[in-house]
Design brief:
Blueprint (H helix, E strand, L loop, with lengths): L1 H34 L12 H33 L3 H29 L5 H9 L1 H4 L4 H29 L3 H25 L2 H4 L14 H6 L32 E7 L13 H8 L2 E3 L2 E2 L5 H10 L17 H8 L3 E7 H6 L10 E5 L5 H17 L5 E7 L25 H25 L6 E7 L9 H6 L3 H4 L3 E4 L6 E3 L3 E2 L3 H8 L25 E4 L3 E5 L3 E6 L4 E5 L5 E2 L5 H10 L7
Parallel strand pairs: 1-6, 1-7, 2-9, 3-10, 4-5, 4-6
Antiparallel strand pairs: 2-8, 7-8, 11-12, 12-13, 13-14, 14-15
Helix pairs in contact: 1-2, 1-3, 1-6, 2-3, 2-7, 3-6, 14-15
């Protein structure tokens, strides 16, 4: 009798476990249906291989998520409370919560371009009324719960009939094959740079496709000859066709200096450039769009915030500024180092330039000398108007030429650690070297040349590259900006400006473009004070939002920290939601929906 009772209990648990597997599979199908909403942002594939990958990836991923929810939240309850009525009701509620969360995540993803994480959740919760509009967001959870209850009861009544058909093992094999195959295909696509597949990497929540570029290359599999696959272009850049009319064709020289801190442009460190800035248009509170070379250069040439830096379309689209200059008959020359060419993002950022690259192996100071020499030679050979981007790199490595006689060391204005003091004074020597190079360069240019001198990013006195990458303090992003116009304009601009305003200024003043700057940039003309209360600094991995009295730093996992305006003290407070909502929407504004 006791054995029969134990056997009946085992049979009941076995039946509940079988029912749970089928209920999880049913919810995997519902999750796939909801997941279609994620595809509005990246768009649907254009090729057969894209559709094939997306199909098996969707089946494998959402089935896996449903099974994980079952394994964590339902399976233990099956063993503890093996009563079908309780379990069916509990399972229906859990499944409804899971699907509603997934549905809410699709709304957040479409509006902000990110999945739910601590940052996105706080933001979306505060903006709940703006996201959840209409009665269907009240009705939908009720409908989902009703569907789940009906499905739970329907499956329970028919579980024995379903089991007799022996579909379970075949279905598990099929889903497992889809899951494994999607990762194997992604490994190949990542190695071969098949963007029709890799562009879906961040589309689904909790999705981490396998990559093995290094592994495949070490085994002799080279994806460089893989035929190009059409990629959907869904970035509206510009939002409207440009309307430009140019009467004159002044030459333009853009000098972008790596790691160029604004607070060290003084009469002792950079005497020539200090006096030069006082005689021209000086912007005293200017910020780069990034704290690294790639994000700073991106904001300088594209005028877009760093959230767009990995947009697939921009690997095929050069900056509108250089496109338009080229169309107007300008000769474009790029003068940088080999590493400067390789480290820039996206791939098309320098496509319109004729590159003249200096080697890095003899030091950055020596490469700067070669860079300037190449520019001088190129300039004298030009017959028509030209635009040159001259990238100097000495301050990044605190470098000076052998035998360089610099300036006396001084005590830093801010307290520094002993190692930082050494870097501080070596950095000043490097700036002094650059100052001498600028003096020789700028005094020989034709009078009809517009000259823009700025920094790619600021500088943190550390040899720890990871620390520098994460740090978005004013020291690491505030840079000088001085503009010399052929008709000298001696002005000092004291309100905040940024790299985002340089492209609109040149497009308007040099190329005569009448479009509003919002058609192609995140900034405004530098001489038009911006009423925007925030500024995006960084890329899409670590970025900061500069506001009037605080700086909010957000990492790729959605964790955020808030500091005072000097980046000195961490503030124990919640983020300012209205500005953050504007930030996230600006990061999606140029995408078509």
């Amino acid at each position: 009798m006791v054995e029969q009772k134990i056997q009946r209990g085992r049979d009941r648990v076995s039946r509940l476990i079988n029912w749970g597997h089928w209920f999880a599979f049913f919810n995997g199908i519902l999750a796939m249906i909801v997941g279609i909403r994620y595809l509005k942002s990246p768009g649907f594939p254009d090729s057969l291989i894209g559709w094939g990958y997306l199909t098996i990836s969707t089946i494998g991923h959402f089935s896996f998520l449903a099974f994980i929810v079952y394994l964590v939240l339902l399976f233990p309850i099956t063993l503890l409370l093996p009563y079908s009525r309780i379990l069916r009701g509990y399972a229906a509620v859990i499944a409804s919560i899971g699907l509603c969360t997934l549905l809410y995540d699709t709304v957040v993803y479409q509006d902000y371009g990110m999945h739910l994480n601590p940052f996105a959740f706080d933001l979306a919760w505060a903006d709940l009324n703006g996201l959840l509009q209409g009665p269907y967001f009240v009705v939908t959870p009720i409908v989902i719960l009703v569907v789940e209850l009906i499905a739970a009861n329907w499956l329970w009544k028919r579980i024995e009939r379903i089991q007799r058909r022996n579909w379970g093992n075949k279905l598990v094999m099929f889903i497992g094959l889809c899951f494994v195959s999607s990762h194997l295909i992604h490994i190949w696509a990542d190695a071969a740079d098949v963007t029709e597949i890799t562009r879906f990497d961040d589309t689904y929540p909790i999705s981490y496709p396998a990559t093995a570029r290094t592994f495949m290359e070490s085994h002799g599999i080279d994806g460089s000859n893989t035929p190009d696959i059409k990629v959907e272009r869904n970035l509206n850049y510009p939002q409207q066709p440009l309307q430009c009319h140019i009467d004159q064709h002044p030459n333009v020289l853009l000098v972008a200096i790596d790691s160029f801190r604004a607070d060290l442009v003084d009469e002792q460190t950079m005497p020539f450039f200090y006096h030069y800035s006082q005689q021209n248009q000086l912007f005293t509170h200017h910020l780069s769009g990034g704290n690294q070379y790639s994000s700073g250069m991106f904001s300088l040439l594209y005028g877009l915030q760093g959230s767009y830096i990995d947009a697939v379309d921009l690997n095929f689209t050069s900056p509108l500024l250089t496109q338009t200059l080229k169309q107007q008959g300008y000769q474009l020359g790029l003068f940088t180092t080999i590493s400067g060419m390789n480290d820039a993002k996206p791939k098309a950022i320098f496509n319109d330039f004729q590159p003249y690259l200096a080697a890095d192996d003899t030091g950055k100071a020596q490469s700067d000398i070669k860079t300037i020499s190449s520019f001088e030679k190129w300039r004298t050979q030009q017959q028509g108007p030209w635009f040159a981007l001259l990238n100097l790199k000495s301050p990044e490595d605190y470098d000076t030429p052998v035998g360089f006689l610099g300036i006396q060391t001084v005590k830093p204005a801010e307290p520094l650690k002993p190692a930082e003091k050494v870097l501080f004074n070596q950095y000043r020597q490097s700036l002094n070297f650059v100052d001498q190079q600028l003096q020789a360069l700028l005094q020989t240019l034709p009078t009809n040349t517009i000259i823009v001198v700025t920094g790619v990013s600021g500088k943190l006195f550390t040899s720890n590259t990871d620390e520098a990458r994460r740090n978005v303090s004013p020291e690491n992003v505030q840079v000088p900006l001085v503009i010399h116009w052929p008709v000298t304009i001696r002005t000092k601009v004291n309100y905040r400006t940024s790299h985002y305003g340089i492209v609109p200024t040149l497009m308007t003043q040099v190329l005569g473009c009448t479009n509003p700057a919002t058609d192609y940039s995140a900034g405004r003309h530098l001489l038009q004070p911006d009423d925007q209360t925030w500024l995006y600094i960084g890329d899409n991995r670590v970025f900061a939002i500069y506001q009037q009295h605080e700086i909010t730093v957000i990492d790729r996992h959605g964790k955020y920290r808030i500091y005072d305006e000097n980046y000195r003290h961490r503030l124990r407070k919640k983020m300012s939601v209205p500005e953050m909502i504007e930030v996230m929407r600006e990061g999606r504004r140029l995408y078509s929906h």
